[in-house]
Amino acid sequence: MHNCFHAGDILLPQKISMKKWACVACDQFSSQPKYWDRVAAFVGEDPSTYHMIIPEAYLRQGETDARLQKIHHTMDRYLSEGIFRTYRRSFIYLERIMPDRSLRHGLMGQVDLEDYDYTPGSGSRIRATEGTVQDRIPPRMRLLRGARLEFPHVLMLCDDRKDAIMTAAQSVRGEKVYDFDLMEDGGHITGWLISGLGVSIVNTAVSDYISAVETSQEPGNAMSFAVGDGNHSLASAKACLEEIKPTLSEEERLTHPARYALVELENIHDPAIEFEPIHRIVSGVPMEALTKRLNACSAKDGYPIHLITSAGEETICLDRSLSPLAIAILQPVLDELVEEYGGTMDYIHGADAVRTLAMETGSIGLILPGMEKSSLFPGVLHGGVLPRKTFSMGTAREKRYYLEGKMRQ
Predict the structure, then answer these.
(1) First and final C-alpha spacing in the chain
(2) Phi first, then psi: what are they for 178, rounded to 5°?
(3) pLDDT of residue 222
(4) What is the largest CA-CA distance in the chain?
(5) The pLDDT of residue 1
(6) Over the Cα atoms of the chain, what is R_g?
(7) How far, in Å, CA of 228 to CA of 263, rounded?
(8) Cα 145 to Cα 149, 357, 404, distances in angstroms
């Protein structure tokens, strides 16, 4: 059994401002262009990953072709100026102090994209947690085509109850390779190199984890890792690999850099990782129709769903035997009713916001129970992917910042 997550050749810039270098994932603050305006002003013309991405907040402004050309030129310039040091066949163990002062642990390495498939029910060892929106892949592929460098914001999750992988990584960490405050109140991040014998020790921990978790699952449907954040970026890298594979020899297919993608591995059992439920507001759907449909799949001591309107509140408990996840039972009901009655549905963070919005005439607020971390892997295995907007892994400032890179060509 080969490891689908392993050490890689990792690039880090040298002798520059790391605070200016690292910026948050491009899909964050998509409705707040002023955030990105501040980033642009802070970074200026200094080396930064900001100069190698297109924030989604700017996509409506057009000029995408010109931005792509500038990005590829910037990558070429950084390489010609020699700002990177390559850490060959290495991991980076990292600790991030989050904005709320909690400590989150991670391990930067690379995945084999041949072991990843975002198609629901694919049976691959690395799977998406949510459905992939196909329209979001082509724009990302355009950036990757012709790009000599790649910087990830992918967070990949393991279900390591013993925390053996992170414990092993922490025990063999070596040279400190970065230690700085992240811009825009993103917290603080520190990274240590793992190389040589340390890589073998971490590889053993990863192999043992994969063996244990896949042995515990149904034969033929084993999943080692789940993509928590950045699935569309990883899906785009996979699509680019499939695009170039016909042009490669059998030997080249084994070693081409585009076959591999950098990700940060995190353990869902890390106390700093929180799965916040994403609640629902439904408008234009009769309350009687909703309660009738939900009562048909209810059970005593089931998942509690709180229904809120301007007239009051009630709770319906959904039968736990139907799914490892409450939302997997609820979402199809909501989809059917919204379509049947021509209603609308919105996704809301925070129970207080739901209660406020539910006071509007014709609106129904649905407050969902928190998702247990232990339900993530069973939920994906049971349903292929999780229903859209099942949970959120922290706020925008808590998402991954672009930092480490790798060659694509």
Answers:
(1) 27
(2) -160, 155
(3) 83
(4) 68
(5) 54
(6) 22
(7) 11
(8) 10, 44, 19
Point out the residues of the chain with pLDDT beneath 70.
1, 60-63, 132-133
pLDDT for residue 371: 79
What residues does CATH 3.30.1760 cover in the chain?
277-393
Phi-psi group of 196: left, alpha or beta (phi > 0 → left; psi -120 to 50 → alpha; rest → beta): left
Cα–Cα distance for residue pair 230/236, rounded to 1 Å = 10
Q: Out of 3.30.1760, 2.60.40, 3.40.50, 3.30.2010, which CATH number does the structure's domain 277-393 have? A: 3.30.1760
Residue 19 parent element (H or E): helix 18-21
Q: How far apart are CA 314 and CA 308, in angstroms?
A: 7
Element (DSSP H or E) covering residue 353: helix 351-357
Reference 151, options 346, 301, 21; nearest CA is 21
Residue 176 backbone phi and psi in degrees, to 5: -80, 120
Q: Would you give the distance in Å from CA 55 to the centre of its chain?
A: 16
**CB-based burial, 73-100: b 16+ in 10 Å, e otherwise:** ebbeebeeeebbeebeebbbbbbbbbbe
Cα separation, 291 vs 123, whole angstroms:
36
Across the strands, what pairs with 280?
Answer: 347, 366
Chain segment 56-86, per-residue pLDDT in tens: 888 766 667 888 999 999 999 999 999 999 9
What is the spatial distance between Cα 397 and Cα 392, in angstroms, rounded to a whole number? 12
In 3D space, the residue among 144, 143, 134 whose CA is nearest the CA of residue 241 turns out to be 144
What is the pTM for the complete model shown?
A: 0.84
pLDDT score of 228: 87
How open is the CA angle 371-377-381, to the nearest 5 degrees? Answer: 120
- Give the pLDDT confidence of 33-64 residue by residue, as tens digits: 899 999 999 999 999 999 999 888 887 666 67
Residue type, 255: T
